[in-house]
Specification:
The complex is a heterodimer. By secondary structure, chain A is mostly helical. Chain A has 22 helices and two strands. The termini of chain B are far apart. Classes of the chains: A mainly alpha, B mainly alpha.
Chain lengths: 484, 502
C-alpha cells in the first residue's frame, strides 16, 4: 500500500497529473473566447511545479513505492530544467498557435503529459518506471507531431516517428526482459535498478545480460537520437509544428540523458567496461554523421536536427567517461543544449507568421537589417551551438572533452574537437546569411510584436552569454548531483 | 590610482560598445562620437599603466585574481609584464586611430562597426593580460567573433569567403591548444599559467603539447605554410579591420609563443627550434619574393606582414639556440628584445601602410597597383607619409622597422652566420617590393585620369597618419624607453629558456 510519504515524495508529479486532468476538463467546458487563458494557466502550472520540485527536495536521496521512484539531486535538476524549457516553449509557441488556429487544450495537455513522462523517466528506480515514463513521453510526442493533422508533412512525420519509436520501445522492452531473465538465473529475478547493479557478479547467464544491455542501448540511442539510430530526427524535426520540434529538441533530450544515466549507471553499472566503448562508438558516429550531413542542409529545422545528432555525440562523450565527472559534464551539456536549442527555435518562431513559415536558412537573409536584435540573439545562439567562447556551448564542450581526457580517452576528445571545427561551418553559415546577405525581395521578416515572447526570448538567449561568462554555479549544481 | 586598472582596460571598451550600439542607425554621428570618446578614455586609462608598472622590478605586476569557476579552480586573473604593457599601449593607441579612420569610410550601420571595434579592442587587451590559461583561451577565441563580423559585413566583394576562411582556419588551430590545456589541467589541477610553467613534463608530453601550441599560434602569427588565410582576410577586410588585424591581432600569436611555448615546453621548444627557424627564414625570403609579384596593394602589404612576422618568430627561437647550445644569454636577450621591438614596430608600420591604402581606396575604389601612378602629383602630403611608412617597412635606420630587424640579425649572426645571411636578405627584398610599390603608385606620370581628380588628405586623415608617423619615428630614433620597458621581462623570459623541465 502506498503510504502518505510515498505520495509526498511524488507530490510534484501527482500535482501535475491532477492539474493536467483539470486543464483537460476546463478546455472542454470553456467558451472559445476564454481559451487563450489556458496559455497563462499552463505556464503558471509548470512554474508552480518547479517550485514544488525545489521546495520539496529532501536533503538525501529518497525512494518511494518500494524503490520504483527515486527522488535525488539528479532528478531534481533535470526536472527543473525540463519544466523550465517547456514553459519557454509555451511562451514561444503562442503566436504560432494563434496564427495557425491550433491554440487549444490539446497542445497544452499533451505537452504537460509529456513533461510528466519526463519527470517519471528521470526519477525511475525500476525498469518498469523507465518504460512507463518513456511511453508516456513518446505517445504524447507522437500525437503532438501530428497536431496539425490536415497537413501532409506533419502526418508523415508522425507516422515515421511512431513506427520507429514503437520499434525502439520494443527493443528496449526486449532488452529489459533479457536483463530480468539474467537476474533470475542465479538469484531472485528483479526489475529494480539498484538491485540490478551487481547482477553481473552472480548471474549464470552473462551473455544474456549483455544482449539485454545491447538492446537497451538501442532504445537509449533512439531516444537520444544518436547515430545510427538517428533516422527519425531530421524528418520529425522538419515535419512537426515548430513548437513541438522545440520541445523534442530540448525537454526530450534532458529526459533521454536522465534515462541513459538511470539505466546505465544505476542499472548496468557493473558492465561499465562493456557499454563505455559502445557509447564511444555511438558518439563518434553521431559526431561524424550529424556534423557532416548538416553542412548541406538548406532547411534550418533540418540543419538543427542534424546538429542535434552531433550534440548528442558530445553528450555521449561525457556519458562514456562513466564517472561522476563525466555524468556532471554530460548533464551540464544536456542543460546547455536544451537552453540553446529552445532559443534557436524561439527565434524561428518569433519570425514565423500566418502564411509564412520561417524555416529555410535563406528566410533569414538580411535579418540584421530588418531586426538587429533578433539577429543578435540568433548570433549568440549559433555561436553557442558552435562552441565559441565565451558562450555557454563552449564550456559545455570543454567539460565533456575534459571528462573524456580524464577517462583516458584522449582519442575520443580529439575526434570530438575535430568535428567541432566541421560543425563551426554551418553555424557560421547562418550568421553569414543574417549579417552579410541582403534581404530577399519582398521579404516580410519582422519579429512578432508579442511582448512576452520578445522579453523571454531575449532573456533566454542572453542567458547563454551570462552563463558563459559565469558558469560556475550551474556546474557546481550539476556536480553536486553526482556527489562532487 | 586605479586598483583594478587591467579589468577597467578590458571592460571599458566592451561596456562602451553598448551605448554606441544603442545610438542606433538613426544617429550615426552620436555613435561615432561616443565610440571615439570610449576609445580615447581607454587610451588615457592605459597611460596609467606606465605610471603604475615598474619596469625594473620585472615579473608580473598589477595582479588581479578572483576565483571564477570553483569546480575547476579557474581564476579570473590578470597581470602584466613589460611586454604586455607595450602591446596594450599599442592596442589602445591604434584603437583611437581606427575609429577616427572609419569616420566617413563606414556609412553603412556605423554604430555596429564601431561597437565591434571596441569589443575587439577590449578582448585583445584581455588576451595580453590574462594569466589564467583558460581565461586566455576564451579571450583568444572570442576575438574571432567581432573580426568575423567586421570582415563579413563591411568587407570587399569576396568577404564571405575570406571571413569564413579566417574564422575556421584560426579556430582549427586553437582547438588543439584547448586539448593541450585540458591535458595540462589533468596533470597540474589548475590553469594558472605560472604553475603550468613550473610543471615537469616528459619529452614526449612536451613534444605533443609543443605542436598543439605551435599549430594554434603559428596560424595566428601567421607562419609559413599556414599563412594562406591572411592575404584573403586582409584584402577583403575594411581598412580598420586590416589595421587591427595586422597591427594587434597577429601579435596575439607571437605573444602566445612567449606565454605558452617558452615556459611550458622549453625542452621541446629547444629541440624543434630549428623547425621554427627554418619556417621563419622561409617566411622572410620566400614570402618576400611572393610579395614582389603582387598586383594588389593590400595583398602586397599582407605578404610583407608575413615576412616581417618571420623576424619575430626568428628572434624568439634563435634565443633557444643561443641559450641552450652556446650559453650566451646576452645574445639571446638581444634577439628576443629585437623580436619584441619588431612586434611593436610592425604594429605601427603595417597599420600605417594599411591606412594609406585605405586612403587611396576611398578615393579610387581600387586596390590594383596598375590603376595608380603619379599620385604624388595629386596628393603631395599623402605622398610624404606614404614614402615615410614605406621606408620604415623596408627597415631604414631612423625608423622603427630598423631597430628590431637589426637586433634580430645581430643575434642570429652569433648563433649561425648562415641564418643571419638569409635573414639579411630581407633588407634587399623588403626594399625591392616596398620601393617598387612606391614607384608604381606615387611616382611617374598620371596615366589614369581619375588619379588627377584625387583630393589631398583631409584633416582627419592627416591626424591618423601623423599619429602613426610620430610612433614610427619615435621608436626609430629613440627606442630606449620601449627597450627599457621590456628589458627586465625579456631577461626573465630568457632565464626561463635555460630551465630543463624533464
Amino acid at each position: 500500500m502506498p503510504t502518505l510519504t510515498d505520495i509526498l515524495i511524488m507530490l510534484p508529479e501527482f500535482y501535475l497529473v491532477a492539474a493536467a486532468c483539470v486543464l483537460l476538463l476546463a478546455d472542454a467546458f470553456m467558451q472559445p473566447a476564454q481559451r487563450p487563458y489556458l496559455h497563462w494557466i499552463s505556464i503558471a502550472l509548470l512554474l508552480f511545479t518547479i517550485y514544488l520540485v525545489i521546495a520539496g527536495q529532501p536533503p538525501q536521496t529518497v525512494t518511494a513505492f518500494g524503490g520504483m521512484f527515486v527522488r535525488d539531486r539528479v532528478s531534481e535538476i533535470l526536472k527543473v530544467f525540463a519544466l523550465l524549457t517547456t514553459a519557454l516553449v509555451f511562451v514561444y509557441a503562442r503566436p504560432y498557435l494563434i496564427d495557425r488556429k491550433l491554440l487549444g487544450g490539446e497542445f497544452y495537455t499533451l505537452m504537460i503529459f509529456a513533461v510528466i513522462g519526463i519527470m517519471l523517466l528521470v526519477s525511475a528506480g525500476n525498469l518498469v518506471t523507465v518504460y512507463l515514463g518513456l511511453e508516456l513521453l513518446s505517445l504524447s510526442s507522437y500525437a503532438m507531431v501530428a497536431l496539425n493533422r490536415d497537413e501532409r508533412l506533419p502526418s508523415e512525420a508522425a507516422i515515421k516517428y511512431f513506427v520507429l519509436g514503437a520499434l525502439a520501445s520494443g527493443m528496449l522492452l526486449y532488452g529489459m526482459s533479457m536483463v530480468y531473465g539474467a537476474s533470475g538465473m542465479g538469484g531472485t529475478p528483479t526489475l529494480d535498478l539498484a538491485q540490478l547493479h551487481n547482477v553481473m557478479t552472480y548471474t549464470q547467464a552473462p551473455k544474456l545480460l549483455l544482449f539485454g544491455l545491447i538492446f537497451m542501448l538501442v532504445g537509449i540511442g533512439f531516444k537520444l537520437g544518436a547515430a545510427p539510430f538517428h533516422m527519425w530526427i531530421p524528418d520529425v524535426y522538419q515535419g512537426a509544428p515548430t513548437p513541438v520540434t522545440t520541445f523534442i529538441a530540448s525537454g526530450s533530450k534532458l529526459a533521454a540523458f536522465g534515462m541513459a544515466y538511470r539505466l546505465l549507471d544505476a542499472g548496468m553499472g557493473d558492465l561499465v567496461h562493456q557499454w563505455q566503448l559502445m557509447l564511444a562508438v555511438l558518439a563518434v558516429l553521431s559526431l561524424a554523421i550529424g556534423n557532416l550531413v548538416a553542412i548541406v542542409q538548406t532547411n534550418l529545422k533540418r540543419m538543427l536536427a542534424y546538429s542535434t545528432i552531433s550534440h548528442m555525440g558530445y553528450l555521449l562523450l561525457g556519458l562514456s567517461a562513466a564517472g561522476p565527472e563525466g555524468y556532471a559534464a554530460a548533464m551540464f551539456y544536456a542543460i546547455g543544449y536544451a537552453l540553446m536549442s529552445v532559443a534557436a527555435f524561439g527565434v524561428m518562431l518569433s519570425l514565423t507568421r500566418a502564411g509564412f513559415e520561417c524555416e529555410e536558412i535563406a528566410d533569414l537573409k538580411g535579418l540584421n537589417r530588418k531586426s538587429p536584435w533578433m539577429a543578435f540573439l540568433m548570433l549568440l545562439t549559433m555561436l553557442s551551438l558552435a562552441g565559441v567562447p565565451p558562450l555557454l556551448g563552449f564550456w559545455a564542450k570543454a567539460l565533456v572533452l575534459e571528462a573524456a581526457i580524464h577517462a583516458n580517452m584522449l582519442w575520443l576528445a580529439i575526434v570530438g574537437i575535430v568535428f567541432a571545427i566541421v560543425g563551426l561551418y554551418y553555424y557560421l553559415h547562418v550568421i553569414k546569411v543574417m549579417y552579410f546577405d541582403k534581404p530577399q525581395e519582398g521579404s516580410v521578416l519582422q519579429a512578432k510584436p508579442d511582448m512576452s515572447l520578445r522579453v523571454v526570448l531575449s532573456l533566454n538567449a542572453m542567458s547563454l552569454l551570462a552563463l558563459g561568462l559565469y558558469w560556475g554555479p550551474l556546474l557546481g549544481w550539476c556536480r553536486s548531483a553526482f556527489g562532487l | 590610482m586605479f586598483t583594478h586598472l587591467l579589468s577597467l582596460l578590458i571592460w571599458l571598451p566592451v561596456a562602451g560598445a553598448i551605448p554606441v550600439l544603442l545610438a542606433g542607425s538613426a544617429r550615426p554621428n552620436l555613435a561615432r562620437w561616443l565610440a571615439l570618446l570610449v576609445a580615447v578614455l581607454t587610451f588615457v586609462v592605459s597611460l596609467f599603466l606606465l605610471l603604475q608598472y615598474h619596469p625594473d622590478a620585472g615579473g608580473m605586476q598589477l595582479t588581479e585574481s578572483y576565483l571564477w569557476i570553483p569546480a575547476w579552480g579557474v581564476h579570473y586573473s590578470l597581470a602584466v609584464d613589460g611586454i604586455s604593457v607595450a602591446l596594450i599601449l599599442m592596442s589602445t593607441f591604434i584603437g583611437i586611430l581606427v575609429i577616427v579612420g572609419a569616420w566617413e569610410a563606414i556609412q553603412d550601420r556605423p554604430q555596429q562597426y564601431m561597437a565591434a571595434m571596441l569589443i575587439l579592442e577590449g578582448l585583445l587587451i584581455g588576451v595580453f593580460c590574462a594569466t589564467d590559461a583558460l581565461l586566455f583561451y576564451a579571450l583568444f577565441e572570442a576575438i574571432l567573433i567581432p573580426m568575423f563580423i567586421l570582415i563579413g559585413v563591411w568587407g570587399g566583394p569576396r568577404r564571405v569567403y575570406a571571413t569564413l576562411k579566417f574564422f575556421i582556419y584560426t579556430f582549427f588551430g586553437s582547438v588543439f591548444m584547448l586539448i593541450a590545456l585540458l591535458y595540462l589541467y589533468q596533470k597540474a589541477g589548475t590553469f594558472d599559467m605560472a604553475t603550468l610553467a613550473a610543471l615537469p613534463l616528459t619529452m614526449k608530453e612536451q613534444t605533443w603539447i609543443f605542436f598543439a601550441f605551435l599549430i594554434a599560434f603559428a596560424i595566428k602569427v601567421p607562419m609559413v605554410p599556414v599563412h594562406t588565410w591572411l592575404p584573403d582576410a586582409h584584402v577583403e577586410a575594411p581598412t580598420g579591420g586590416s589595421v587591427v588585424l595586422a597591427a594587434v591581432m597577429l601579435k596575439v600569436g607571437t605573444y602566445g609563443f612567449l606565454r605558452f611555448i617558452l615556459p611550458i615546453t622549453p625542452d621541446a621548444g629547444a629541440h624543434y627550434a630549428w623547425l621554427v627557424i627554418v619556417l621563419s627564414l622561409i617566411a622572410i625570403v620566400y614570402i618576400g619574393y611572393v610579395a614582389l609579384v603582387q598586383e594588389d596593394m593590400k595583398k602586397l602589404v599582407a605578404y610583407s606582414s608575413v615576412a616581417h612576422m618571420g623576424f619575430v618568430t626568428l628572434g624568439i627561437f634563435i634565443a633557444f639556440l643561443l641559450v641552450r647550445e652556446q650559453g650566451s644569454a646576452d645574445m639571446a636577450q638581444l634577439g628576443m628584445q629585437g623580436a619584441m621591438v619588431q612586434m611593436i614596430s610592425h604594429g605601427f608600420v603595417s597599420g600605417a601602410m594599411f591606412t594609406c591604402i585605405g586612403v587611396l581606396y576611398d578615393r579610387l575604389h581600387s586596390r590594383q597597383i596598375k590603376d595608380y601612378g603619379g599620385v604624388i602629383n595629386a596628393m603631395p602630403w599623402f605622398g610624404f607619409f606614404y614614402v615615410l611608412f614605406a621606408l620604415a617597412n623596408c627597415g631604414l635606420p631612423g625608423t622603427s622597422g630598423f631597430v628590431g630587424e637589426f637586433m634580430v640579425i645581430l643575434a642570429s649572426f652569433s648563433a649561425n652566420p648562415w641564418i643571419a645571411l638569409f635573414a639579411g636578405f630581407t633588407l634587399v627584398i623588403g626594399a625591392a617590393y616596398t620601393l617598387w610599390l612606391v614607384k608604381r603608385v606615387l611616382w611617374g606620370d598620371i596615366t589614369n585620369p581619375h588619379v588627377a581628380e584625387m583630393k589631398e588628405i583631409n584633416g582627419r586623415e592627416t591626424f591618423v597618419l601623423v599619429a602613426f608617423a610620430a610612433a614610427v619615428l619615435a621608436i626609430g630614433i629613440w627606442p630606449q624607453p620601449l627597450v627599457h620597458l621590456m628589458d627586465t621581462s625579456v631577461a626573465q623570459l630568457v632565464q626561463q629558456l635555460a630551465i630543463h623541465k624533464i
